[in-house]
Specification:
The complex is a heterodimer.
Chain A: E1 8-19, E2 22-29, E3 43-48, E4 52-57, E5 68-73, H1 77-83, E6 90-97, E7 112-117, H2 121-133, E8 141-147, H3 156-161, E9 169-175, E10 185-186, H4 189-196, E11 203-207, H5 210-222, E12 230-233, E13 249-250, E14 253-254, H6 255-258, E15 261-263, H7 264-267
Parallel strand pairs in A: 7-8, 7-11, 8-9, 9-10, 11-12
Antiparallel strand pairs in A: 1-2, 1-6, 2-5, 3-4, 3-6, 12-15, 13-14
Helix pairs in contact in A: 4-5
Chain B: E1 4-8, H1 12-22, E2 24-31, E3 34-39, E4 65-74, E5 77-82, E6 90-95, H2 97-111, H3 118-126, E7 127-131, E8 157-161, E9 165-170, H4 173-181, E10 187-188, H5 195-206, H6 223-227, H7 232-235, H8 244-247, E11 255-263, E12 266-273, H9 293-312, H10 322-326, H11 333-340
Parallel strand pairs in B: 2-6, 6-7
Antiparallel strand pairs in B: 1-9, 1-10, 2-3, 4-5, 4-12, 8-9, 11-12
The chains are: A alpha/beta, B alpha+beta.
């Protein structure tokens, strides 16, 4: 028996500037190996001792056996500090925590529509990369992703150079407002979603800001999708990550162990407090 | 039924001394107006006649604060040193039925699921719990509303106190072993000897004002109805958000994890009791899902009366009544049950 709250030491090997306030950190353990195995959608607790500890979704795929990646937006004290770290710097890491997208069960063999907004593409990227690395196991893939402006699109190079060229895959990008450096679609994710008009023969993985989820969900239902076809992730304050400290509950569910992935019909039975 | 034993109340100090020679012994100690579990020693006053301790015995399993590990930071390096907690057998003597049941509630949280709480588990395994039937239940007690029988308090060993004797009966193998160990200090008793004590307790409890509460509505099926109940808009208004109810609650086990700089270059990470009554309990960089005291207040009672029952098929309240006694504005779970229960 071990105390799951005691972390490993992690080393940052590379850092990628995604947007003005999002960086992707590549992390290995002290021996240079991947710190632990995980599934798409699962999370890890990263900490800078003396500064704080928080839960981050793992943005890399389980098929990557060499390292993990975390795409972190600068929003508070800890993330501000993490953004100042450089390759070679250390932090602590523990996990994996939470459930995961049903990539080897419900999603297998299906057409999948990924919808994401802003930094919320991070947990979705883990699934997308898993699907591409096991391409024959899945049907058609549609990816609809939006951000406030072109420089706010995380993984933009990867999306344009790699994802868009995958077989049987469509990528749709949009930004909220007109921008001189952008010749693609302009408008919110739900508006673009309506214009494209997806057929209902697929499962949906959707992560984004609550307002995007709200309007896109309404459209999905209008178009004939059922809530049982749509998966999303939730995020609440966490401390222990192991279902004990008691602060990430939504009704009887603890997001750290019962989530972060929820099928949206499950949310109807929970108090509206997230 | 396991054998019933007794010891004359005048010889209890001898029994305590003998137990304390073998392992740490915690008992309800009287200090002025306060009654709390404390470490037995030569100069303490054990009071088994008091109603319930001011604080609960939960800190014997989940200390108010405990170190998890330290991180030594040197030249960019981080070294993790797990805290060296000491886990040795101990006895906690005189725990009432409500606090015994509360331990079972916390066991569900800390010992079940994919992750078992390391330190909590080791403390529980090392503990031998001697319960004590309540001979003087108080006006604020409502364990009977949750179907607890204060006259059969459980634990590893159950005990009953009358003027002359303390009766003891093992409730499991662990308790039997303990009784064997100290049998030379005990006398065998007749099975019927505790019956009048039990009858008196049950009679007293049935007459208490809160022994029956309208709990019928508090079912998992009613969770959303209870959550959206309009009475929350009024009930929470007097709440000061002081959090006392959570600290003195035997089933509140939520905790925070924090750091402090123990010495230059060494960060101590510890966990300590926390309270859902506080705004920063759920505060995130991008906002707070429990924005006002209404949501925080509702969370606490919904957890005890709806969420915990949904997960573990038992209420998260044991009717100890400490919140009834201690809330500075006399808000307590009894008022919530009555208001939402339709009274």
């Amino acid at each position: 028996m071990r105390d799951f709250q005691i972390p490993k030491v992690g080393i940052i090997t590379e850092i990628f500037e995604e947007t003005p306030d999002v960086k992707t950190f590549r992390v290995v353990d002290e021996s240079g190996a991947k710190a632990f195995d995980h599934m798409p959608g699962q999370c890890a607790m990263l900490s800078v001792p003396g500064v704080g500890e928080a839960m981050f979704s793992i943005a890399s795929s389980p098929t990557n056996t060499k390292f993990m990646e975390f795409s972190i937006k600068r929003v508070g004290v800890l993330t501000e500090h993490i953004h100042k770290l450089e390759p070679g710097d250390k932090l602590t890491i523990r996990g994996p925590y939470g459930n995961f997208f049903p990539v080897d069960t419900e999603l297998k063999g299906k057409n999948i529509l990924f919808v994401a907004g802003g930094i919320a593409l991070a947990p979705v990227r883990s699934v997308i990369k898993y699907v591409f690395d096991n391409r024959a196991d899945y049907g058609y893939v549609d990816i609809l992703y939006g951000a406030r402006n072109p420089e706010g699109l995380v993984y933009r190079k990867e999306i344009e150079k790699s994802w868009a060229d995958k077989p049987n895959t469509n990528v749709f990008l949009t930004i909220d407002q007109h921008d001189e450096d952008w010749d693609g679609h302009i408008g919110f994710v739900p508006d673009y979603f309506k214009k494209i008009g997806f057929s209902t023969d697929k499962l949906v993985v959707m992560c984004g800001p609550p307002i995007m989820i709200k309007f896109t969900m309404a459209l999905l239902l209008e178009m004939g999708f059922k809530k049982e076809q749509v998966y999303t992730t939730l995020e609440l304050r966490m401390k222990c990550g192991i279902g004990k400290c008691g602060r990430c509950n939504i009704g009887p569910k603890l997001v750290c162990v019962d989530g972060p992935v929820f099928r949206t019909d499950e949310l109807d039975n929970l108090p509206d407090e997230f | 039924m396991k054998g019933l034993y007794k010891i004359s109340t005048g010889e209890l100090d001898g029994l305590f001394a003998e137990i304390a020679r073998e392992m740490r012994l915690y008992a309800p100690l009287r200090q002025g107006n306060e009654l709390n579990f404390g470490l037995w020693g030569a100069s303490v006053t054990v009071d088994l006649h008091g109603l319930k301790t001011d604080n609960t015995p939960k800190d014997l399993f989940l200390p108010q604060s405990e170190d998890l590990y330290s991180a030594s930071l040197k030249g960019g390096d981080i070294k993790i040193n797990p805290a060296e907690a000491e886990f040795a057998p101990f006895v906690v003597f005189g725990v009432k039925a409500c606090d015994i049941k509360a331990t079972a509630v916390l066991d569900n949280i800390f010992l079940k699921g994919d992750f078992v709480d390391h330190n909590y588990k080791l403390r529980r395994e090392n503990a031998l719990i001697v319960s004590l039937a309540c001979n003087k239940p108080g006006m604020s007690c409502f364990c009977a509303a949750f179907n607890l029988d204060a006259a059969a308090p459980g634990g590893d060993i159950a005990t009953w106190l009358c003027n002359e004797y303390l009766y003891l009966q093992a409730q499991n193998e662990k308790g039997e072993g303990f009784i064997k160990q100290f049998a030379h200090l005990l006398q065998e008793a007749e099975e019927g000897e505790i019956a009048p004590i039990q009858a008196e307790i049950r009679e007293k409890i049935a007459a208490l004002p809160y022994s029956e509460l309208p709990l019928e509505n508090f079912t998992p099926e009613n969770m959303l109805k209870l959550f959206n109940h309009e009475n929350w808009n009024i009930l929470y208004k007097a709440c000061l958000g002081c959090g006392i109810c959570t600290y003195i609650c035997p089933t509140c086990g939520c905790y925070d994890i924090r750091d402090f700089e123990a010495k230059c270059g060494e960060i101590q990470r510890f966990r300590c009791w926390d309270s859902c009554m506080y705004p920063d309990f759920t505060l995130m960089a991008h906002g707070n899902p429990r924005i006002s005291q209404k949501e925080r207040f509702r969370q606490r009672f919904m957890h005890k009366l709806a969420y915990h029952p949904e997960k573990f098929a038992e209420y998260g309240c044991v009717g100890c009544g400490r919140c009834v006694n201690k809330c500075p504005v006399s808000l307590n779970i009894v008022k919530i049950i009555k208001s939402l229960g339709g009274e």
